[in-house]
């Protein structure tokens, strides 16, 4: 795989393809009918079709490029919150005050907006919450609050990245676990898991769970502000539409989480000790166009290997180092919604991964059932 060196604006331009979805929201809000379908068609189906045409991009950028050279790459993530905010709350005000759409047309429109806030907003929030600047972290927090999923920041940074592919991580999907069972388990377990992680950190500093430094105060305040604004702009129907788009966004995020680590386990070394995270513990995908739309999220093996690496610099891996998805995330999440289809496509790949990387492991049943010991020192 060759090494390339991004040259700022020309290299960043393809990663701005998400912006095309904003006029599609406006068109659907004004015209009603089936115009809302343009949003999932663009984000899921057109992207998958273009992946089929342009294929894989296996070039790796120079990982030593300075942050200052990535201005236009970073810009699209930083400006996304005000754009998404306008799409969600502008649409609530517009459709409720003009009254030109039927109830079903509004449901379709806010499904499409949920595609926007889930496919794009959640992915950008993920990138932003990994950064060190206050501006980027605040933009990430605001994006998460706009879909009522603020605890994801804590759960992702303090739990997922530490304990991915072990029983401690709720969003590491087990072998043979269908998406719907996984989805319920994540919705049930993740908020409490995030709370425990934060309160344990506070306890180490000899602070109480209700200390003002607990970010759950911020999470709650931001989410209540979003709910209040939706209610003020659109009344109870506006609030329900806001909740609907938030659910669609969360559903898409957890579909992605399901795909990213399905069936992959870090080897248990005994007494609650697990091997270090490596590229082999995440599914990798080098599909060109879906990586443009999802700002290289599909180079997920490298993201877990080097979590502080910005998205333009993420590396891709060959089959000797990381397992490969047959398609990009838009197509794979569609397959995941049909569990028998998913198992037919992915279970043989998981078994091949086990033979390739862990031929010495004879009994995978404890891994499959999540019955191995919790990692030592896990929050």
UniProtKB/TrEMBL annotation:
Signal peptide feature range: none
Statement: the UniProt record of this protein carries the keyword Transmembrane: yes
Recorded topology in the membrane: Multi-pass membrane protein
InterPro entries: AlkB/XylM (IPR033885), FA_desaturase_dom (IPR005804)
Keywords: Cell inner membrane, Cell membrane, Iron, Membrane, Metal-binding, Monooxygenase, Oxidoreductase, Transmembrane, Transmembrane helix
Protein's UniProt keywords contain Nucleotidyltransferase: no
Location(s), subcellular: Cell inner membrane
A UniProt-annotated Pfam family: FA_desaturase
Fatty acid desaturase domain: residues covered: 108-334
Any GO molecular function: monooxygenase activity
Residue intervals passing through the bilayer: 12-29, 35-54, 75-95, 107-129, 216-236
GO biological process: lipid metabolic process
Protein name as annotated: Alkane 1-monooxygenase
Family in the record: Belongs to the fatty acid desaturase type 1 family. AlkB subfamily.
Annotated Gene Ontology cellular component terms: plasma membrane
């Amino acid at each position: 795989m060759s090494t390339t060196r991004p040259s700022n604006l020309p290299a960043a331009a393809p990663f701005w393809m998400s912006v095309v979805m904003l006029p599609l929201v406006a068109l659907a809000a004004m015209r009603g009918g089936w115009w809302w379908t343009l949003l999932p068609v663009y984000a899921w189906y057109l992207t998958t079709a273009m992946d089929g045409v342009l294929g894989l991009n296996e070039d790796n950028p120079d990982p030593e490029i300075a942050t200052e050279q990535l201005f236009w790459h970073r810009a699209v993530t930083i400006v996304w919150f005000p754009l998404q905010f306008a799409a969600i709350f502008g649409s609530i005000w517009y459709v409720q005050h003009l009254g030109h759409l039927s109830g079903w047309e509004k449901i379709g429109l806010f499904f499409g907006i949920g595609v926007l806030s889930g496919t794009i907003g959640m992915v950008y929030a993920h990138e932003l919450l990994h950064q060190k600047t206050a501006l980027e972290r605040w933009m990430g927090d605001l994006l998460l609050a706009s879909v009522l999923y603020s605890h994801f920041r804590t759960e992702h940074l303090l739990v997922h990245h530490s304990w991915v592919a072990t029983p401690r991580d709720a969003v590491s999907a087990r072998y043979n676990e269908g998406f719907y069972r996984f989805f319920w388990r994540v919705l049930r377990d993740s908020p409490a898991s995030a709370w425990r992680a934060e309160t344990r950190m506070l306890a180490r500093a000899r602070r109480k769970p209700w200390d003002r430094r607990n970010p759950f105060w911020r999470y709650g305040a931001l989410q209540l502000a979003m709910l209040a604004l939706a209610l003020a702009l659109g009344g109870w129907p506006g609030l329900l539409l806001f909740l609907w788009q938030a659910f669609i966004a969360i559903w898409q995020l957890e579909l992605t989480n399901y795909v990213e680590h399905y069936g992959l386990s870090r080897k248990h070394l005994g007494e609650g000790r697990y091997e270090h995270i490596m590229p082999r513990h995440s599914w990798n995908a080098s599909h060109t166009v879906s990586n443009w739309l999802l700002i290289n999220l599909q180079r997920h093996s490298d993201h877990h290997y080097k979590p502080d690496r910005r998205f333009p610099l993420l590396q891709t891996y060959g089959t000797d180092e990381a397992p490969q998805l047959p398609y990009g995330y838009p197509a794979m999440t569609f397959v995941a919604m049909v569990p028998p289809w998913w198992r037919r496509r992915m279970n043989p790949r998981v078994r091949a991964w086990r033979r390739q990387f862990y031929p010495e492991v004879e009994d995978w049943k404890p891994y499959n059932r999540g019955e191995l010991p919790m990692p030592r020192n896990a929050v």
